[in-house]
Amino acid sequence: MSGEMGAEIAAPHGLMVGHPRRWFALPVLLTGAFLPILDFNVVNLALPSIQQGLGATAGDVQFVISAYAATYAVFLITGGRLGDWLGRKRMFLLGVAGFTCASLLCGLATSPDMLIAARVLQALTATGMAPQVLASIRVLFPPAEQATALGLYGATFGLANIMGQILGGLLVSAHPFGLTWQTIFLINIPVGLLAFAGGWLFLADTRAEDAGRLDLGGVALLSSMLGLLVYPLVEGREAGWPIWAVCMLAAVPAMLAAFIAFERRVKI
């Protein structure tokens, strides 16, 4: 067997049973869904501490959140396509390893710019990890068990949102090892290491047999459009709305039109 069917085992009388390690793989996969959402929410309560510790402006701390969210939104579909093409286990492990390293860089940041750059890297690596979760559940579990697995997958998002708020406040106020805001990122390191080990041991490498080529032009145009929109909205007010901010915002409709025209040509 190859592709997605390689993740399933034929059972007697034509039934299909899931991959034998699927229930060991599920907690690992759910960790990959949990971390990106947790890291978006956990930062909120630490923003005053980040601003004080790094001497950041209001625009800087806003961009700590916005840069992560925008990057994650833009490249999430691309991460899923890469998993279909290159293999979901491979992309999951690369994503977990990259996210763990990026979290370390966030915790070691000594300036707002370094933290923002590390957050962008966090989001990029998260897009290699998160899309593989749902796709892997779909092929590792037989239809009879998919409802349970998908229910746990959905509950993971709610838990991540709640834990992000609780954990952010606890870590910043507890000052473990004399640290403040850094701990909200450094805590990802042991979790990421465990997820990587579990993924290496328990995940089956599946991929889509009909995975098409990446739409690199569309990704570039959409990324440019969001950059032109998000950056001036975050930094423009702090800078007093200079001409560059107005020009960037004015260019957004043209970039959107270019993206739509490009995608129409791709479909032809």
From TrEMBL:
InterPro entries linked to this entry: MFS, MFS_dom, MFS_trans_sf
CDD domains to which the protein is assigned, alphabetical: MFS_MMR_MDR_like
UniProtKB keywords: Membrane, Plasmid, Transmembrane, Transmembrane helix
Membrane topology term: Multi-pass membrane protein
Residue ranges crossing the lipid bilayer per the database entry: 23-43, 63-80, 92-110, 116-137, 149-172, 184-204, 216-234, 240-262
Domain Major facilitator superfamily (MFS) profile per the UniProt entry, residue ranges: 25-268
SUPFAM superfamilies: MFS general substrate transporter
Main subcellular localisation: membrane
Pfam families according to UniProt: MFS_1 (PF07690)
Compartments it resides in: Membrane
PANTHER family, sorted: ACTINORHODIN TRANSPORTER-RELATED, MAJOR FACILITATOR SUPERFAMILY MULTIDRUG TRANSPORTER MFSC
The protein's name: MFS transporter
